[in-house]
Amino acid sequence: MTAPELETLLYDLTQSAGLGISGSVYKRGLRPLQNENDSHLEDAVVGVISGNGDEVQKGTCVINVYIPDVLTSTGEYLEDKTRTASIAAAIENLPKQFRRNKRMVWFTLSEQIAVFGEPNLHEHFVSLKMDYKVLQEQLS
Q1: What is the Cα–Cα distance from 63 to 129, expressed in whole angstroms?
Q2: What is the dihedral angle through the alpha carbons of 103, 52, 6, 92, rounded to the nearest 10 degrees?
Q3: How far is residue 12's CA from residue 125's CA, in Å, rounded to a whole number?
Q4: How far apart are CA 109 and CA 127, in angstroms?
Q5: How confident is the model at residue 140 (pLDDT cuts 50, 70, 90)?
Q6: CB of 62 closer than 8 Å to CB of 101
Q7: Full set of structural domains in the chain with CATH
Q8: CA distance 44 to 67
Q9: Is the dihedral of CA 135, 3, 97, 52 positive or negative?
Q10: For residue 77, which phi and psi values (nearest 5 degrees)?
């Protein structure tokens, strides 16, 4: 399975997962550039970070969900903790096994789901980093 095929699988998975985000799902590098003056939506970005070409392919992929910060009455932007927790719970429950194009694909959590800030953009993102394994089905 190629990296673009795996990225499409992640895209389809995230698109159909019903995360309840206000924005869209994008493949890595395709999310429109944001700046601090933009109106932000909750967007998910999927991508393949690394992989090998062995008979059993292994590598790492990521799903990041961006959430706008909350503007306080004092003019500060703070993480929307309720929303980041909700998104973290939703992406943690994504299916972990798939059959696609005569291949079996397994995902396992490679790091704890984490939240990172983008202070210049007034948003935080929930990051799910997973290891994957792809096995070509044996034809009889």
Answers
A1: 7
A2: 100
A3: 20
A4: 11
A5: very low
A6: no
A7: 3-136 (3.30.2000.20)
A8: 9
A9: positive
A10: -105, 125
